[in-house]
Amino acid sequence: MKKTIIVTGGAGFIGSNFIFHMLKKYTDYRIICLDCLTYAGNLSTLMPVMDNTNFRFVKESITDRDAVYKLFEEENPDIIVNFAAESHVDRSIHNPEVFLDTNIKGTAVLMDACRKYGIQRCHQVSTDEVYGDLPLDRPDLFFTEDTPIHTSSPYSSSKASADLLVLAYHRTYNLPVTISRCSNNYGPYHFPEKLIPLMIANALNDRPLPVYGEGLNVRDWLYVEDHCKAIDLIIHQGRIGEVYNIGGHNEMRNIDIVKIICKELGKPESLITYVTDRKGHDMRYAIDPTKIHNELGWLPETKFADGIKKTIQWYLDNKEWWETIISGEYQNYYKKMYGNR
Ligand SMILES: NC(=O)c1ccc[n+]([C@@H]2O[C@H](COP(=O)([O-])OP(=O)(O)OC[C@H]3O[C@@H](n4cnc5c(N)ncnc54)[C@H](O)[C@@H]3O)[C@@H](O)[C@H]2O)c1
Question: Which one of 68, 78, 83, 131 has the fewest CB atoms closer than 10 angstroms to its CB?
Fold first, then answer.
């Protein structure tokens, strides 16, 4: 059945991959991307779908109540998927305020719009970081949906706050919500200040590869397409009011990822430099995805060994995309595209 979906934050890494996935799979769906294009949003990422008649891009902030209500009136969406967020832990340590505005207040504005205009499903894209971290010497421990929230950074605290608000809107107003909490993603269109794309870009330019502390922190890596497929399943078949963890049982130490990238690109490990650790750096994240597997049949399809090769190849084939970002020139792109319209 035909549906209209508002995807917020769709000019960012995961949101753009989700838009590509949905437009390809559901040729009768209308997808509206609502994104205010912060430093992390890049309109050129959405070029492949800009001319698709089922797609519309709207440059507004989720914190702007009038703009969000206007969009709901115009489009009468069936589903909203909220990817829009300030997403970088390091930036949240330097300037928490914008994280509170976008990640908490923005989420509330979206849910108020859902209440006011009615919606079939309001899906909140959250993160495994809301559970805090696990000790390195307890590989038997994993985050389940029942693990208590125990955040470490302003970023994860703002995401956890949004999750609590979403669940409260369900309980109080009966809003049809779902939440997904995913582990670290990697893949095409990942902003080049995050670990994997940063290391690929620096290695290609023979620049130092800065690794926090000793690089022993463990993350559970998931290929971005697998995350998008999981959200697709949740918004269509997930139970209302439920939280679903998404992860690939693919734990890797940061240092080992950097070494794999060096090997794949034929670069020496001597490029690796150890830098002062992040404040409050979480040691290990590990998701137990049993619930989404048992209820919705979801399983990750891309193994890390294949996904990292595909990702590196993508960065080799799309140098212009990330070089434009590194130079800062991409921020003029919207002006160039829309300045005279
Ligand atoms: N990247 C990961 O590994 C990961 C893992 C789990 C969960 N998540 C969550 O997934 C979501 C997307 O993450 P990402 O890595 O694609 O982030 P990203 O930083 O690449 O993209 C965020 C997008 O949101 C937009 N945005 C920011 N503030 C906005 C606002 N006020 N109004 C409208 N748009 C706004 C930005 O312009 C950008 O396009 C986030 O909610 C994040 O918490 C990310």
Answer: 78
